[in-house]
Design brief:
Elements: E1 8-11, E2 14-25, E3 30-36, E4 46-49, E5 53-55
Antiparallel strand pairs: 1-2, 1-5, 2-3, 3-4
Length: about 60
């Protein structure tokens, strides 16, 4: 699976939520993400292990 910044993904532990990939850290195998759609006031980023993410199919994006 090829994930790039800007891709929309979901997390294995929260399959109903959508997140946007902000950055990839190959050294630590972490992916920095934020909730999607972006909040007008704040959209904090956080790191998750790459094994915890899965890409969204285009028809799943609302």
């Amino acid at each position: 699976m090829t994930i790039q910044p800007g891709n929309l993904i979901s997390l294995n532990q929260k399959p109903g939520a959508t997140y946007q990939v902000v950055n990839l850290d190959d050294c630590s195998d972490c992916v920095w993400v934020r909730r999607w759609p972006l909040d007008a006031h704040r959209s904090p980023t956080f790191a998750v292990q790459s094994a915890e993410i899965r890409p969204l199919r285009s028809e799943a994006i609302r």
